[in-house]
Design a protein that fits this description.
Jelly Rolls; single chain; mainly beta; 505 residues; TIM Barrel
């Protein structure tokens, strides 16, 4: 199907079109009645998308009664392109008839049945089971919508082929999903280590949930968050894998064309739509949805250089920022500099920093880095509260522990994420203790003026200042050996301790 086959722009959805329906008539009805199932029914369409194609192309599929399973496969060409020019990349997903709008337009989110992006070339859905990334359930009659997402299109255009196969028969029984517990056996008020950005085979990861859980325990983590791209299918994939020693939270990596963000710790089954750009005035609505579901909004890898990854939505409504993503890179250095400027600009409305592995496969370590959260207990509610308050530091492994505090001559005291309210000129003592630092690591204390003290991490640091000179103090532990004047790679860092200048009593 070519441009002439695109019926209409999708109402309320910039950059989307709907194609002519793929109709299976009523041939499946007989297969649900007799003892011998009818043969599967297949339809195939071919089409071409030009450079500048809409973000999403919807293919309506008219599914008759009596269908047990729907199977979808697709492919597209990958012509050679000049160096530095994006080639073809085509994503795919599906919505069922519950999301059909009688007025036409994009399918509503209540019909979401799965998304695999460009990671899979085929998927199946039935009542009993579904391909990872998709949700099991009856294949009900009505208009289903296959979603094609031309992520990038080569200058030559993109030729694609899509096949839908319906298998008639009686539907089976859909299993009741088992979601993770909201609490694990904690240590009361303590520091808990977690990885808030992980992928499995339920999106574009290579590991199974079992393999991720094993890796998390091996890394010394207390909690992890399931954050598959644009799908909730991973929420029910942890049965038998969470326990007293590992808290598993539900979430999603919302992968838009103008940046990715994490929905952390949402109610199980909470779906967050991704079909918009910053210009579409939709992000704020989904921020509210995440918050109503008890979760946090965290822009992910905001300075990632890849297509569609850089963050364009601003930070209104966000609860934290994923500043450190995987092994330390120049992208993270840029994110750190922007965040440090934000501390000065936003003041009391600051956003805490997170460190997450974004691990997809072997060779990407779960827990590198990790966010270490001071929480009242190892529960969903307490961990999210600690993250939101900034009571956390980031570390490349569980071998490293940090303590950063500020105290004044009147006995006031504050730690990471806290505020020391003190007289403007009162002496404030800042102490940093580091345990498990890499050999030769350098510790640094930084304020709104920049680095004001550094030294060997193994011995820790002590520094005196006043609230009139420093509005906050944060700490970094760096590996030795940065190039030129650049510091070495990050080994650990803290969120700030704030110094609030109070008028004399």
């Amino acid at each position: 199907m070519h441009r002439r086959d695109m019926l209409k722009s999708t109402a309320g959805m910039a950059g989307a079109v709907t194609l002519a329906p793929m109709d299976f008539a009523r041939a499946a009805d007989g297969g649900a009645q007799g003892d011998s199932p009818a043969a599967p029914l297949s339809r195939t369409i071919k089409g071409e998308l030009p450079t500048g194609a809409p973000d999403f192309v919807y293919v309506p599929v008219e599914v008759p009664r009596g269908v047990r399973e729907i199977a979808v496969s697709y492919g597209y060409d990958r012509p050679e392109v000049p160096e530095g020019t994006p080639g073809n990349a085509l994503d795919i997903g599906v919505f069922d008839p519950r999301g059909t709008d009688p007025r036409g337009g994009a399918p509503r989110t209540d019909g979401f049945r799965g998304w695999s992006g460009g990671f899979r070339t085929e998927f199946t859905i039935s009542a009993e089971r579904a391909t990872p990334g998709y949700l099991p359930g009856p294949v009900g009659p009505g208009t289903w919508h296959i979603v094609l997402g031309p992520y990038t299109v080569a200058p030559q255009g993109m030729r694609y082929e899509l096949t839908v196969t319906l298998t008639p028969g009686r539907p089976g029984r859909t299993p009741i999903p088992v979601h993770p517990s909201e609490r694990a056996r904690g240590r009361g008020r303590a520091w808990y280590r977690g990885d808030c950005h992980l992928h499995t085979v339920h999106s574009d990861g290579r590991r199974t949930p079992a393999e991720v859980a094993t890796a998390a325990r091996r890394a010394g983590l207390d909690f992890i968050v399931s954050t598959e791209h644009n799908t909730t299918s991973g929420h029910a994939a942890w049965e038998g894998l969470f326990g007293d020693d590992l808290l598993v939270l539900c979430g999603e990596e919302v992968t838009t064309r103008n940046g990715h963000y994490l929905a952390l710790g949402t109610d199980p089954g909470t779906f967050v739509d991704w079909r918009y750009r910053a210009r579409d005035d939709a992000y704020e609505r989904w921020v509210r949805r995440i918050h109503r579901a008890g979760g946090l909004v965290v822009p992910a890898h905001p300075n990632c250089p890849y297509v569609g990854c850089q963050w364009k939505f601003g930070y209104e409504g966000a609860d934290a920022i994923e500043l450190w993503n995987g092994p330390w890179t120049p992208d993270d250095e840029l994110a750190l500099a922007a965040w440090d400027n934000m501390l000065v600009e936003r003041g009391r409305d600051w956003l805490p920093a997170l460190g997450c592995s974004d691990a997809h496969s072997e060779g990407q370590d779960v827990g590198l880095p990790q966010t270490v959260v001071h929480a009242d207990d190892l529960t969903r509610r307490d961990v999210l509260a600690g993250i939101r308050a900034g009571r956390s530091y980031l570390a490349e492994s569980s071998r490293i522990s940090l303590e950063l505090s500020a105290s004044d001559e009147r006995g006031g005291h504050a730690t990471i994420g806290g505020r020391l309210r003190t007289a403007p000129t009162a002496d404030v003592t800042v102490r940093l203790a580091v345990d498990g630092a890499p050999e030769g690591a350098v510790a640094r204390l930084l304020t709104d003026q920049g680095e004001l003290l550094s030294g060997p991490a193994a011995t820790g640091l002590e520094w005196r200042t006043t609230a009139s000179l420093a509005s906050y103090v944060r700490a970094e532990v760096r590996h030795p050996g940065g190039e030129g004047q650049l510091p070495g790679a990050m080994a650990a860092m803290t969120n700030p301790v704030w110094l609030d200048a109070a008028p004399p009593r």
